[in-house]
Amino acid sequence: MRASSSAPRARARDVDADAIAVIELAHARTSNALDRDGFEALKRACETIESNRIARCVVVRGAGGNFSSGLDLSTANAILDARTADGCAGRANEALMRTIEAMQAGVSALERMSAPSIACVSGVCFGGGVDVITACDVRIASEDARFCVKEVDLGLAADLGTLQRLPTIVGHGRAMDLALTARTIDAREALAIGLVTEVVADVDARGMELARELAKKSPLALRGTKRVLLRARDDPNVAKGLDYVAAHNAAMLRSDDLSEALRARAERRPPVFSKL
């Protein structure tokens, strides 16, 4: 789907020879601001990658030196207009709810992908950009990256996933600080609080390097590990988590990937895992 400017706001590039897919936020003129069509394009890109089941790792990045400046102003204005477009407050509220849920679905599609995702953050990552990176599994940043949970300064509570995911990444207290103050932090502070795991000079190159490292591993093991960790986050009951991973591995221990990993180790060679 295309935005009103006829430029795609998010696009998936073809999976490369290393089984790595790239999703690019692609509206550099607005620092990759996301509008409603952009969230829909993000959702479709994730669903295409998931349905093809070829990619073993997904890199998410922004075009033009910035990750994302957040919600596009045209979308914000359209949401404001929708409040008065219908004389019935109940129907207006329902329409707003559908709009928010559609944008939430675009962000959550990143987390629902079976393959692990790596957010490569450069330049600004504000508002909706933070929603996007917190839905990714690994986050790395360039030295010039800046982060801001901006919504409170716009009279809103962040509603696309940051308030749900950020506390599990940086801790409740730090998430409160960032969300209530809307202060901008640099890459070094993001590293110190655990929002990102690396700060590098060339984030796109490092992201592809890390993706290639992951793509060499068993795709079943990667997807299973991601699934178990997300379940543990959403239901932190240890006993339930152990039961879940036991049932998961009871099935996975019968896979060819385990046999190949053991053979490769015995033969002192890199393992070669089959496609899914």
From TrEMBL:
Family annotation (SUPFAM superfamilies): ClpP/crotonase
Keywords for this protein: Fatty acid metabolism, Isomerase, Lipid metabolism
Pathway(s) served: Lipid metabolism; fatty acid beta-oxidation
InterPro entries (UniProt xref): ClpP/crotonase-like_dom_sf, Ech1-like, Enoyl-CoA_hyd/isom_CS, Enoyl-CoA_hydra/iso, Enoyl-CoA_hydra_C
A Pfam family assignment: ECH_1
Official protein name in the record: Enoyl CoA hydratase-like protein
Domain of life: Eukaryota
One GO-annotated biological process of the protein: fatty acid beta-oxidation
Molecular function GO terms recorded: delta(3,5)-delta(2,4)-dienoyl-CoA isomerase activity
Protein family according to the UniProt entry: Belongs to the enoyl-CoA hydratase/isomerase family.
Keyword Isomerase in record: yes
PROSITE patterns from the UniProt entry: ENOYL_COA_HYDRATASE
